[in-house]
Structure formats: C-alpha cells, structure tokens
Design brief:
It contains 6 helices and 11 strands. It has about 260 residues and is α+β, with helices and mostly antiparallel strands. The chain has one domain. The strands form 2 sheets. It has a 9-stranded mixed barrel. Strands 7-8 form a two-stranded antiparallel sheet.
Length: about 260
C-alpha cells in the first residue's frame, strides 16, 4: 500500500506534462532579448535530480502479473486490440527458447516492471546508464542523438533523454508547494525489437514508442524513492497507450546485486 504522502508525490510527478505545456511559452518569452551566454552545462552537471545509485523494485501494484508468470491468455488491464490478443493467445515459451529469444519480456517496454534491482550511473557527461540484474540488461539514455550510424532494432532500442524542470519550491502550475519535485528525466525510446509487456506473451511490436518519466523523492525518514511512469504507444497491438507507474527504493550499495539471465518461463 502506498502511503498518502508518497501518493501525493506520485501525483505531482504525473503533473509534469501539464505544467510544462503551460509554462513553456513563458520561459521562451523571458529568454528573449538576453545577451550572449557561456556554454550550457553538460546534462550531468545540469541534472535537477540525482537518479544515480542502486534501487530495488517494490511491487505495490499488479502483483499477480509481476511476481509470477501469468497464465496464458491473462492479459487483463492491457488495452490489446484483436491482433494483440491473438498473438498473446499463441504464446509458446518453448518456441521462444528454441529461437534464442528468452529476453522478449526483458525489452525496454517491459523491463522496468520486472522485479529486481537497477543500477543507474553516468557513463559520460551526456549518457546515463541503467543496468538491471533481472535479465542482465543495459539501457543507455543519450542526451541528444547518439553518435554514429543508426543502430539496428534491439531489446533496449535507442533512448533519447532530456531534463524537465520546474522552479524550486513551486508546485504544479506555479502554486506554492515546498514539497514538490524540482526535476524529472524524460526518456523516449524507439528502434525496438518486438517483445512482451508481460512474461506470458502479451506483445508489443517494432512500431512501439516508449515514453518514460523518472522522478526521485525523499521521505522525512530518509528513504529515497524512484518513480518511473511508463507510457507504451503501439499502434499495431494496442487500442490506446498502456500506462504504468513503478516504484523503487534506494539501497545503500551493491550488496544485494544479483545478475540473472533472461528466462522465458
């Protein structure tokens, strides 16, 4: 059960998009007419919130679909269209194993829902890296387009990140709220291989656009929480966006880090 205070912070984090739409024109207007400025800080230096460290997932919702492999055909709460239901009804883990595709449920669109631990750290001044012990996966969030030729589709795809901030000490739409978050990370991921939203074959396609918002909060008792809001848009298999919120608690170090391979069952 999420405590009321945590729930309030989650609701504040979900209000980012609304705040940014309203405030963007004001920020643009304020910037007009200013003289030349120095080079902007790197994304690492400009981070409005610290997401780095080791985090363990706390399953506060969807226990029956996350803690065990659901039964074949159990895709409740996922807005699958008829084609998506057909694919899910045909799930065959033995076939995935024979094809060497045991990692289908560890692709980016479903990875953060897999119970386990994540390690977030700066790979460079312009790239934030996320490692997971479940499935031993690696995601890289690039601030700006990655250098080199476009990468082929993969389980983790290509992720472009950007900081989204609001004035410190102000709430949604500028209302006073000292406890409001001061920044969030937005990540957009494309170029994905087809995978599963759940281990029992609930599909997402190569056309998927994944949008995520990462926000960290700190409780009065010192606990630190990471809230990941995930929006999966897939015109091939979904009738509408599939939205989830996943919670992680910060750990003091890597003592419980336990990399495990992908599993199709």
């Amino acid at each position: 059960m999420i405590r009321p205070q945590r729930y309030r912070k989650l609701q504040q984090a979900r209000g980012w998009v609304l705040f940014l739409v309203v405030s963007s024109s004001v920020v643009w207007a304020q910037g007009r007419g200013r003289g030349p400025a120095g080079p902007p800080p790197t994304p690492k230096a400009a981070a409005p919130v610290d997401l780095t460290g080791y985090w363990v997932s706390l399953v506060t919702e969807d226990w029956r679909w996350r803690m065990v492999t659901p039964a074949k055909g159990d895709y409740a709460s996922v807005p699958l269209n008829p084609e998506g239901r057909k694919v899910a009804d045909g799930w065959d883990p033995a076939k995935d194993e024979a094809a060497g595709e045991q990692c289908r449920s560890y692709g980016a669109a479903g990875l953060m829902r897999v119970p386990g631990r994540v390690h977030i750290y700066w790979e460079s001044d312009t790239a934030l890296r996320v490692d997971t012990d479940a499935g031993t996966q690696t995601r890289t969030f690039h601030f700006g387009a990655p250098a080199g030729a476009a990468a082929p589709p993969s389980w983790q795809g290509t992720s472009i990140a950007d900081w989204e901030t609001m004035p410190s000490g102000r709430g949604i739409l500028g209302a006073p709220d000292v406890g409001a978050p001061t920044g969030a990370l937005k990540v957009t991921t494309t170029h994905l291989r087809p995978g599963y939203l759940r281990k029992n074959g609930v599909p997402y396609s190569e056309n998927t656009i994944l949008t995520e918002y990462y926000n960290a909060t700190k409780e009065p008792n010192g606990d630190q929480w990471l809230i990941v809001t995930t929006i999966v848009n897939d015109p091939k298999y979904l009738n509408q966006p599939f939205i989830t919120s996943t919670h992680f608690k910060k750990e003091p170090g890597d003592a419980k880090w336990n990399p495990t391979p992908c599993s199709s069952r």
